[in-house]
TrEMBL record:
<keyword id="KW-0594">Phospholipid biosynthesis</keyword>
<comment type="pathway">
    <text>Lipid metabolism.</text>
</comment>
<feature type="compositionally biased region" description="Low complexity">
    <location>
        <begin position="304"/>
        <end position="324"/>
    </location>
</feature>
<keyword id="KW-0175">Coiled coil</keyword>
<protein>
    <recommendedName>
        <fullName>choline-phosphate cytidylyltransferase</fullName>
        <ecNumber>2.7.7.15</ecNumber>
    </recommendedName>
</protein>
<dbReference type="InterPro" id="IPR004821">
    <property type="entry name" value="Cyt_trans-like"/>
</dbReference>
<keyword id="KW-0443">Lipid metabolism</keyword>
<comment type="similarity">
    <text>Belongs to the cytidylyltransferase family.</text>
</comment>
<feature type="coiled-coil region">
    <location>
        <begin position="224"/>
        <end position="251"/>
    </location>
</feature>
<comment type="pathway">
    <text>Phospholipid metabolism; phosphatidylcholine biosynthesis; phosphatidylcholine from phosphocholine: step 1/2.</text>
</comment>
<feature type="compositionally biased region" description="Low complexity">
    <location>
        <begin position="336"/>
        <end position="347"/>
    </location>
</feature>
<dbReference type="Pfam" id="PF01467">
    <property type="entry name" value="CTP_transf_like"/>
</dbReference>
<dbReference type="InterPro" id="IPR014729">
    <property type="entry name" value="Rossmann-like_a/b/a_fold"/>
</dbReference>
<keyword id="KW-0548">Nucleotidyltransferase</keyword>
<dbReference type="InterPro" id="IPR045049">
    <property type="entry name" value="Pcy1-like"/>
</dbReference>
<dbReference type="InterPro" id="IPR041723">
    <property type="entry name" value="CCT"/>
</dbReference>
<feature type="domain" description="Cytidyltransferase-like">
    <location>
        <begin position="65"/>
        <end position="193"/>
    </location>
</feature>
Length: 354
């Protein structure tokens, strides 16, 4: 039997696979199954799970298959593929993706079309090969065509296409390996969020330039959404103004606090200098007292001594005579003659004195 020889990483299959078949998972997308040309010369013998977990056979990796819809590819899908890839020491992971026709028939309408879902799987780091238009139910012919050793899927019975569990025959053949579902994330959960918040997303896309026709929105709803967008813009502006106002008030408070602190420091310094100059024992008082004393000394001359020496008089000089003969100032002369006589007598006396 002739099978494919695929390589996952340099460390896993460098010894068993030619260099031209090494695929750098992190630098190139995974190939499609109908485009790969890597052929394996070793026979494809059936393996047990115990043998696969031991890492045998050494001449080829264990081929693990995982399938699904993979609509709105998310972390739950990636974690399931990571588990499928790491089930065995040396694994080659093939991922089957169902087409739009099968999915719409058995499960429902998808958000992403089949080409988008194929491409999303090609760029997952755990995927080595993508099988397009995968069957809804796995047949022996499909398993033989792709040389599949094991099928990986969560262990919850998957009822579809008139069957209680589409993986029942795989489990009975001993080819089923279970993985664990990631709780809290699924495609249905994401769609539920979109439906729940439909108005929010419709308004967002209208604001980003999509037309009402592209969004399948009626004329009335379009006007309503655009009005709500305008209201939200006004609210955002008001919020920004409030935040800027608060920031401005905080800056003013900080600056006023610093200003008051500096003013208090300057006031204390001014008061200290004032008291030092004009206080009870200040320099101004001492200077005023000194100037006052100097002014008093300048205005008040030195007094004469109390006992001054008696002037010496000449012995020939007699004391001044008493002018008893001077007439009384209050009584005028009785006649002009008497007045002239008194004047002449005064002049004679002066001459005699001389």
């Amino acid at each position: 039997m002739v099978g494919h020889q695929e390589c996952t990483t340099e460390e896993d299959t460098r010894d068993s696979c030619p260099p031209k078949f090494w695929r750098q998972t992190l630098t190139a997308p995974a190939p499609f199954a109908d485009e790969t040309s890597c052929q394996c010369q070793a026979p494809h013998e059936k393996l047990t799970i115990a043998q696969a977990r031991l890492g045998t056979p050494v001449d080829r990796p264990v081929r693990v298959y995982a399938d699904g819809i993979f609509d709105l590819f998310h972390s739950g899908h990636a974690r399931a593929l990571m588990q499928a890839k790491t089930l065995f020491p040396n694994s080659y992971l093939l991922v089957g993706v169902c087409s739009d026709d099968l999915t719409h028939k058995f499960k429902g309408f998808t958000v992403m079309n089949e080409a988008e879902r194929y491409e999303a799987l090609r760029h997952c780091r755990y995927v080595d090969e993508v099988i397009r238009d995968a069957p809804w139910t796995l047949t022996p012919e499909f398993l033989e065509k792709h040389k599949i050793d094991f099928v990986a899927h969560d262990d919850i019975p998957y009822s579809s296409a008139g069957s209680d569990d589409v993986y029942k025959h795989i489990k009975e053949a001993g080819m089923f390996v279970p993985t664990q579902r990631t709780e809290g994330i699924s495609t249905s959960d994401i769609i539920t969020r979109i439906v729940r918040d439909y108005d929010v997303y419709a308004r967002r896309n209208l604001q980003r330039g999509y037309t009402a026709k592209e969004l399948n929105v009626s004329f009335i709803n379009e006007k309503k959404y655009r009005f709500q967008n305008q209201v939200d813009k006004m609210k955002e502006k008001v919020k920004n103004v409030e935040e800027k106002s608060k920031e401005f008030v905080n800056r003013v408070e900080e600056k006023s606090h610093d200003l008051i602190q500096k003013w208090e420091e300057k006031s204390r310094e001014f008061i200290g200098n004032f008291l030092e100059l004009f206080g009870p024992d200040g320099a101004w008082k001492q200077m005023f007292q000194e100037r006052s004393s100097r002014m008093l000394q300048a205005l008040s001359p030195k007094q004469s001594p109390v006992s001054s020496p008696t002037r010496s008089r000449s012995p020939s000089r007699s004391p001044s005579p008493t002018f008893s003969w001077l007439p009384n100032k209050t009584s005028p002369p009785s006649s002009p003659k008497a007045a002239s006589a008194s004047i002449s007598s005064m002049s004679e006396g002066d001459e005699d004195e001389k």
